[in-house]
């Protein structure tokens, strides 16, 4: 009896904190295709985004029905942040240098070792620079 109470308490704490919901590659692909369909159908607001109503009624409900999952608007918002970051990182790779390419067969970035080394060196220096200024801002606040 004590164990079942503990299990109930643990699951309620998990709900309060917000449990992590994984997205399968198939769910990601479906989400992106649903978003593309919504854009093609003209469902974006005047500011270029989708309303919460559109996302819940047209995108999430279809995704949940197709994959038998239970995603919410919050899950969608979090996934969009991750996808945006991945997109920006990929765009940066393509814009960084003419040495980067895209192999459509393997769906991977291609570059010589020298190009990768230079990119990672610059990227690392930028990260150090950002961290340095962040630490200065924290010290002076």
UniProtKB/TrEMBL annotation:
<dbReference type="InterPro" id="IPR024752">
    <property type="entry name" value="Myb/SANT-like_dom"/>
</dbReference>
<feature type="compositionally biased region" description="Basic and acidic residues">
    <location>
        <begin position="1"/>
        <end position="18"/>
    </location>
</feature>
<dbReference type="InterPro" id="IPR055314">
    <property type="entry name" value="At2g29880-like"/>
</dbReference>
<feature type="domain" description="Myb/SANT-like">
    <location>
        <begin position="22"/>
        <end position="119"/>
    </location>
</feature>
<feature type="region of interest" description="Disordered">
    <location>
        <begin position="1"/>
        <end position="20"/>
    </location>
</feature>
<dbReference type="Pfam" id="PF12776">
    <property type="entry name" value="Myb_DNA-bind_3"/>
</dbReference>
<protein>
    <recommendedName>
        <fullName>Myb/SANT-like domain-containing protein</fullName>
    </recommendedName>
</protein>
């Amino acid at each position: 009896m004590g164990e079942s109470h503990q299990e109930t308490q643990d699951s309620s704490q998990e709900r309060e904190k917000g449990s992590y919901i994984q997205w399968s590659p198939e769910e990601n692909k479906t989400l992106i295709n649903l978003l593309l369909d919504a854009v093609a159908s003209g469902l974006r607001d005047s500011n270029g985004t989708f309303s919460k109503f559109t996302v819940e009624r047209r995108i999430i409900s279809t995704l949940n029905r197709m994959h038998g999952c239970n995603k919410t608007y919050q899950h969608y918002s979090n996934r969009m942040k991750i996808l945006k970051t991945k997109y920006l990182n990929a765009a940066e790779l393509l814009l960084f240098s003419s040495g980067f390419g895209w192999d459509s067969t393997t769906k991977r970035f291609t570059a010589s070792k020298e190009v990768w080394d230079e990119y990672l060196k610059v990227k690392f220096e930028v990260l150090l620079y950002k961290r340095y200024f962040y630490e200065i801002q924290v010290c002076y606040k």
